Amino acid sequence: MTHRVLVAGASGAIGTALVPLLIAAGYTVFGSTRRPDRAKHLEAAGVTPVVVDVFDALALRDALGRIAPHSVIHQLTDLPSGLDPARMAQAVTANARIRDEGTRNLVAAAISAGSKRMIAQSIAWAYRPGATPYDESCALDIDAHGPRGTSVRGVAALERHVLETAPLTGTVLRYGQIYGPGTGCDVPAGSSPLHVEAAAFAAWLALERGTSGIYNIAQDDAEVNSAKAKRELGWSQDLRSGTQV
């Protein structure tokens, strides 16, 4: 049977860049969205749309049961368009919820459907302050206060659900600050910038290589060290659409 992949959050910035890579590689791609108006856009991209809310655990389990994906790629976020500063305070809480409760529901649904693998989006700017560059063994800043603490604890929950829930094999990609088409940011910014297409390639490579564990994914001048991703995934910050890997 053709390898079936569900991309949760397929209509987001990274999902949009990832879908063509998966289709070109021969995967049968299903894409989840909670917005019915995005279904036609997914169909046009060659994806079978799945309209479901990740917080509706029963509906999510039924949907994945019908699809029976071998692998699930978790690119779900809950962020305002263009990262609108006026809405970011509320978004921090909403995004933490999707990382914890949403990921827990997605993991449970994937296991129920017989899925074998999950690759999930995390962030690379959640490390506890210390000597840089940070590698994947460095501790997360889970004791931080305020919005940062809310965000980091959401990330820690996501990673725990993905990496420690048997029998799924889990991979976590700690992305830097995304820029490029569909992100609301056209130029590199932040301590660990990352082009959206290079981010998509990291997810595709993790699927192709069958690797597990945690990987920093950011440009070479970042606050984090991405040597592990380069070594084990064959990833590069220069990967873009049209690249042959």
TrEMBL record:
It holds the Pfam family Epimerase. Residues 5-183 form the NAD-dependent epimerase/dehydratase domain. GO terms for molecular function: aldehyde dehydrogenase (NAD+) activity. InterPro entries: Epimerase_deHydtase (IPR001509), NAD(P)-bd_dom_sf (IPR036291), NAD(P)-dependent_oxidoreduct (IPR051783). SUPFAM superfamilies: NAD(P)-binding Rossmann-fold domains. GO terms for cellular component: cytoplasm. Signal peptide: none annotated. The keyword Heme does not apply. The chain crosses the membrane at residues 6-30. PANTHER family: NAD(P)-BINDING DOMAIN-CONTAINING PROTEIN-RELATED, PROTEIN YEEZ. This is dTDP-glucose 4,6-dehydratase. It comes from Cupriavidus basilensis. The lineage of its organism: Bacteria, Pseudomonadati, Pseudomonadota, Betaproteobacteria, Burkholderiales.
